[in-house]
Amino acid sequence: MTPGTGGGLALLTGQERFPTERTPDMGGGRWQDWAHLLLAVWLFLSPWVLGFADSETVAWNAWLVAVIVATAAVVSIGRYSPQAQWVAVVMGAWLIVSPWLLRTAALAPAAYWNLAAVGLAFVAVGGWNLTARRRGRGA
Predict the structure, then answer these.
(1) Is the pLDDT of residue 123 over 80?
(2) 49 in helix, strand or coil?
(3) Residue 73's closest CA among 83, 64, 63?
């Protein structure tokens, strides 16, 4: 890897090099990126707050998705990344269907509703961000 290349982050940012000058797409992030980050923090903490940390499958599902979305959000806060938005949308869809696929829907009702609500929020915010960018309105 040569100095100044994106390395592994190139996949999420879509850039091989990180420019040194500030552009409208850099820094500060859009509110959607910050919303994804805050939702990911909540998702990570929710097994303890809502009392389903003892249900390992449900809790680990929440923790893993939270880490993945938080990482994508941080990358997108630094520089807009449509791939990071897609990560949030896909992970949100996973959260919505995972209780049935993992056969945990009946184990913890609070967990189910939490995963569904956070999943819907990930899909809605990420989808809106992608649509707004495509239409050229920014975020």
Answers:
(1) yes
(2) helix
(3) 83
Question: pLDDT tens digits for 70-98?
Answer: 999 999 998 888 899 999 999 999 999 99
Residue 131 pLDDT greater than 80, yes or no = yes
Q: Both tokens of residue 40?
A: 């990911």
First to last CA, the chain: 33
**pLDDT by residue (tens digit) across 30-74?**
888 999 999 999 999 999 999 999 888 999 999 999 999 999 999
Judge residue 122's burial from the number of C-beta atoms within 10 Å of its C-beta, 0-12 exposed, 13-18 middle, 19 or more buried: buried
Of 72, 60, 75, 54, the C-alpha closest to 115 is 60
Assigned token pair, 37: 């980050």
* Residue 41 CA, distance from chain mean position: 10
The letter for the amino acid at 119 is G
Write out the H or E segment, with its range, that includes residue 99.
Answer: helix 82-101
Q: How far is CA 98 from CA 15, 36, 79, in A?
A: 32, 19, 30
- Residues 72, 137: Cα–Cα separation, whole Å: 22
